[in-house]
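Researcher: I'd like a structural prediction for the single chain below. Treat it as a standalone chain; there are no partners to consider.
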Amino acid sequence: MTFDEIMAKVKGMASKVDASGTDFLAVQVNLTGKDGGVFYVEVKDGKVSAEPYDYHDRSCALTMEPASFVKLMDGKLDPVVAYTTGKLKVEGDLGKALEFSKLIKK
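Model: Treating it as a single chain, here is the predicted structure.
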């Protein structure tokens, strides 16, 4: 998948996520490699938005290859397994990263 296709998929998922139990969450996703790029996902006031920009006041930043991120979104890659095997790197609050992974599984 290209970065634009991933971004479209994330935006589509964001519009369907029920984030009513989440106060505030700002996650920057850094996709590495040829089809890489940077975007953020923000949960605020029960709404989820995703935009292709850096987010400097983020709760955490996730770094991984695009193919692994797609598997994570599709539920084919467990975030804990991805983290422990080095496919996922987390900078910042690890608890917020887990909260984010629960949101995308819904």
